[in-house]
Amino acid sequence: MEIGVDRLLCEANAVCVGLAPDVFDLDDEEELVIQSGPVPDDQVERVSAAVKACPKNALFISG
Asked: Over the stretch 12-43, which tens digit does the pLDDT of each residue have?
């Protein structure tokens, strides 16, 4: 499982960061940063919840 973001939709409101801080973060310019590579097995549930909770539907799961 890998995560992608539609940068045109993302408002960097950090809902995903709150739900899965080991995978999502905001940089100094308030841009969303996603951990590269596949989502670790112990984070799949948290990441799935973050994707569902994104208020702008900017996150998506691939693979």
From this structure: 999 999 999 999 999 999 999 999 999 999 99
pLDDT of 63 reads: 74
For residues 50 and 15, the answer to whether their CB atoms sit within 8 Å is: yes
**Long-range pairs, 48-54, Cβ under 8 A, ≥24:** 49/19, 49/20, 50/15, 50/16, 50/19, 50/20, 50/23, 50/24, 51/3, 51/16, 53/15, 53/16, 53/19, 54/15, 54/16
